[in-house]
Amino acid sequence: MLIGVIADDFTGASDIANTLAKGHEDSAGLRVVQYLGIPDRPADSGVEAGVVSLKSRSTPVAEAVRESLAALDWLLAQGCRQIVFKYCSTFDSTPEGNIGPVAQALAERLGASGVVVCPAFPTMGRTIYQGHLFVNDRLLSESGMQDHPLTPMTDPDIRRWLSHQVPGPVGLVPAPVVRQGADAIRQALADSDATLVVVDAIDDCDLMRIGRAVAGARLVTGGSGIALGLARNFPAAGRFGAATARTNDAPGAILAGSCSGMTRRQIEAHGRDHPVLEIDVEAVMQDRLGVDEIAAFLLDRPDRAPLAFSSGHPGQVAAMQARYGREAVAGRLDALFGDVARRLVASGVGRLVVAGGETSGAVVSALDLGALEIGPEIAPGVPVLTSAEGLALALKSGNFGDEDFFIRALDMMRGKA
Known about the structure:
single chain; alpha/beta; Rossmann fold; Molybdenum Cofactor Biosythetic Enzyme, Chain A; 15-stranded mixed sheet; three-stranded antiparallel sheet; 19% strand
């Protein structure tokens, strides 16, 4: 194994796995496997990049650090030459969050300094300039992410955000230095007195420059975009070829827990031609709605791409959190989606689309799948995933995909898109 990735959620893991598997321009894609949790056995010899999916984005710092170091130990045991700590391209965290502590703990274990911090993903409109994160033409704090139910992002300055989480300085390699090329970036990282250094990236060319600059670096951190330029640093990479997804005609279903604006638009668009069930969150919290009703709705419509969602507008989400507590609502919905997914698969559903990082983590944890092979790309950042048992999955971060994403994903799993 050449590259080992530690991802802080399951959709982010499939996102960066997709980037590594498809390659970029003149660099071949790698043979990538996404592991759901830390494996208890060695990787197959043909795996060139292993992505360990954790559900640590919203967990306490000590727990996130412990899990991430355990994942690091497993990846190093597989012979990985470079480690990537993958977090969201919108840097989902809080001032008390764990991105900084995890990155520092990994750096300390690996003896690394001048470690790149670059959540940029220009294809999806996430860019960094002067250390500030933008979503398209908006600062992160004005993009809608300030209303995230678990990790409200109220400050676009990644240096300042990290300074709440870690002691000591946080460095910056600004865009003019990045545009000078890999040697200038490498020198700026070496000259920094900070363990963590935010690096500007405005387009894919910047990410390729950063990729060349970190050739030989033990640790890199970022969003999935940071992986664009990594595979080409390993001349023998791509010799096994990317895996191709199996297809099937089994019944399909969609579960959506993301509250992002794009997911809500996708739900609205899907509902024009397909059956949609809005989950009454208050009824769930009061034990008046559960697995039986939701699973029955989905299973009774196997050929119509049925969807069940809990995705609410920011005001609705805030009201439920105020009434029942943020963690209580999130925990109950995660458990519900996991139980529904188990019921669906046990009843013959073989194609499953899940929207939302926390929801995806709950679903794949409940299904106990072990590992997933990376197949064709449905939309930027979202591949078809296939389990050893033949279950086809798509795990979508909230804001990813076009409005027709749900039906497109189910069709691709059947080999019809």
